[in-house]
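Researcher: Re-running this chain for the archive, since the previous output was lost when a drive failed. Same request as before.
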Amino acid sequence: MRRSLFLFLMIFCAWLKVNSTGQVGDFIVIGNDTLAMLSLPIEVDSVLRLNVSQQIREVYPDGYITSCWRKYIATWKMEEEKLYLEDIMICPLEPIFLSL
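Model: Regenerated structure tokens:
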């Protein structure tokens, strides 16, 4: 019984989607400096995340690279203590234009 349960769990886990590769982060421009961000602001806003995901699927429906499972890298700009979305690039770094 234990052996068959273990075997079932191992087979079941093999079909689960796991995003365990380290991800490419977004970038932030502050003054003349461009820095990598550890946070992903688009992922926090569910409406913006859905909008971006739908448009990317229309432009680039197939696959992704493991270091960029979101299929995009965003560039943000900090001005007057406000964060602005400046650009979104599809992985692997193809410029696209989304209407947000």
